[in-house]
Every structure is written in structure tokens, then in C-alpha cells.
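To close the section, here is one more complete example, presented without commentary so you can practise reading it yourself. The ligand is N-carbamoyl-L-aspartate.
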Amino acid sequence: MSDSLTLRRPDDWHLHLRDGAMLRAVLPETARHFARAIIMPNLVPPVVTGAQASDYRDRILDALPAGMQFQPLMTLYLTEETDPDDLAAAHASGLVTSVKLYPAGATTNSASGVSDFDKVRPVLERMAEIGCPLCVHGEVVDADIDIFDREAVFIDRVLDPIRRATPGLRVVMEHITTKTAAAYVRAHEKDLGATITTHHLVINRNHILVGGIKPHYYCLPVAKREEHRLALRAAATSGDARFFLGTDSAPHTDAAKLQPCGCAGCFTATNTLSILAEVFEQDGALDRLEAFAALNGPAFYGLPPNEETITLTKGAPVSYPDHIATDEGPVTVFDPMMPLHWRVS
Ligand code: NCD
Ligand code: ZN
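Output:
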């Protein structure tokens, strides 16, 4: 087995960069290794209009340290009031790459999301017409649905009906966490892809709950049983073009995570590539890491893969900082609980 691996420079198809001091602190962690990322719009207030996306893109580019190259791919936050014309113009100009659907109340800063899916039907139809993909946070929020079942129920009750009612709509099932979701993707050839996070390839729900509660492993959708983690690993390492990397790296300060009602999100931007190389090597699939991290995503979005390459080399365990400092307070870096031998050189 060779101890050097060169791949096209990867992209992150689901990333939270936040704003202000947090943005300035976390952006270099991604830009160091990734060429592009789909930027989540769940700011407070959310990024709803083309004008807001344009301003946010400017703030991201202003925060990029000199000498770093990075292209933010902007998204709009879908609300029941989204104007199809504004969206279509923002997509046609190249400003906006996709639209993000949050069921209202499903996750961090999702209060302005969608409750009545009939209200967004005209927008979804317009998106199908113009070829603008929909990125979906696939969880129902009904109080009577167990949190571990939210994804599977969403597929039946919301996602499948939306896809049937809107032929041609291209959908990315974001951060899938179940074998049910992986199987749904596999069963549909056309217009469907899924992102998988780094952390969901590593943790199951025991890591959150056994031996004391571990807030840094709490994210949404919440990690499920081991059989689901194994199904995600099989999907990610399969080379199947419908599965690609979306880290969902979601920084929150330790103060926001470590409290009686702590925030959801794992911050993985810093060490994601080393973790992925370790995971793919464990599964005998290092030769498919490039497909997952650098080829399948651009192919789904109709973009060329990056021309530049990165090289990973294997050696003594690499150490990453436990946390990164921000002017808002420290942000803990995801601990994969295993030595990482691959460094990005
Ligand atoms: C994300 C966040 O913090 O913005 N949190 C998370 O647990 N993934 C929101 C999201 O993507 O659900
Ligand atoms: Zn997210």
C-alpha cells in the first residue's frame, strides 16, 4: 500500500461558515484544504434573497486571508414567502447555486423554514424548470415522531411526495444518517444525490450517550445506530456518484455547546481530510476517496472538478488542535477517537 495519495482538490457540499468573528476564524480551516463549498444560509436573520446572498458572499470573500483561494457557492434559505423571480434571477446570474429547505424548527436557526409544503410548490416548480437544485434537511418535526425516526418518516411523508409532484426537481438529501436514506438514494437513478458528513462515518448514538453525555458529538440529524453508520460508510466508500462529501461542519462556541440546552453541530473542517483518509483506508477504499470528496459533488452540480490537486501522505499520527480560538470563544474540533495517520502536505 502506497503511503502517498494525490487527488483533485476536494470541495465541501454542505458547510456552515456563520458570520463576523466566527466566520473569520473558521473560514481558513476550510479554505486550507477545500476549493469550494456550498454555504448554508441559516444565519440570523437567514439568507433569503439574492441581495442578501450577494452581501454574504462579499463578507466571506472579505474574511478570506490573503493568499488563500476559495469559492463560496451560495444558497438561499427557502421560506413560505420566497419570491420565485428573485430566486430565478439569482440563479441565472450565477450568484446562487442551490436553495436550502429547512422544515421549520428542525435544527439550528430554522424558525423561518417551511411548515406548509404546499406554499412552496410554485417555487419548487420554478426550480425544476431552471435546473436549480434543492438541498433538503430531511427531518420531520412532529412532536409525536421519535427523533431517531425523523429522517425515515420525512422521506415517506414529505420528500417522496415532493419529488413525485415536481418532476425534474434535482434534490440533494443533506447529511443522511440512515440506511433507509441511503437505500432511497440508490433506488432512484435520476435527479437525486446525497451528502454524507465526516462525523456520521465515525460516530453512532452510543458515542453521544454512553458513559456520560458528550455534547460535542451532538448534531442534527442525530447520529443513529451502528448499522446505520455502517450503511453510510458503505455508501460513501462505494464510489457511487450519487454520494458525496458535505461535512456539515457547524461551529458553535464551547459556551453554546456545553450548557443545559446545548447547540447541535460538530466542527470538523480542521481535520476532515485526515479522518476521511483513515476511514477510507480502513474500508479498503482509498482509491475511491477522490470520487467521494472531489468528483461526485461537482458532477451532480454540473461543475468541473478542480484542476489543482492535494497530496495526502501517511506517517506518524498527525495532531490537530483540540479547539480553535475565535473572538467569540473557543470552538472544539471534532475528536474522531482514533489516531490519524494521513496528513495533507
Ligand atoms: C447545523 C448548525 O449548527 O447550523 N447543526 C447541525 O447539527 N448540523 C444545522 C444543520 O445543518 O442542521
Ligand atoms: Zn448543516
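Once you have examined the C-alpha cells, check your reading against these statements. Residues 14, 16, 40, 248, 250 surround zinc ion (ligand 2) (CB under 6 Å). The CA atoms of residues 193 and 300 lie 7 Å apart.
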